[in-house]
Write a structure and sequence with these properties.
This protein has one domain. 57% of the residues lie in helices and 12% in strands. Strands 1-2 form a two-stranded antiparallel sheet. It has a two-stranded antiparallel sheet with strand order 3-4. It starts with a strand and ends in a 5-residue tail after the last helix. The chain binds zinc ion. Zinc ion binds next to helix 1.
């Protein structure tokens, strides 16, 4: 038995934290896991909102006639082709 690194109570449970054996009791381990789950959920929500903002911007660009004129010069065609690739990557085409 060792002393839980968090609350100091006796425990036989040991975790590998930073490559060292660290005693953490079941109760503290549960609390930490629950806290991490909440953080992960909030990070997921933040990333979803960020992705939506990026996709909204791409949708706006897709409707912008100033960008999708008939390309005459090579640089114009090149720019539009690269923009299409960027849009495809953001829209997740080819990623299932
Ligand atoms: Zn503890």
């Amino acid at each position: 038995m060792s002393e839980c690194k968090v609350c100091g109570s006796e425990t036989g449970v040991v975790f590998n934290i930073g490559f060292s054996k660290t005693p953490v009791c079941d109760s503290c381990a549960y609390t930490i896991a629950a806290q991490q789950a909440v953080c992960a959920e909030s990070e997921r929500d933040r990333l979803k909102a960020e992705l939506k903002a990026i996709r909204d911007m791409v949708d706006k660009q897709a409707e912008d006639e100033g960008l999708w004129f008939d390309a005459v010069t090579c640089p114009e065609a090149y720019l539009q082709r690269e923009l299409r690739k960027l849009h495809a990557a953001i829209e997740g085409e080819g990623n299932g």
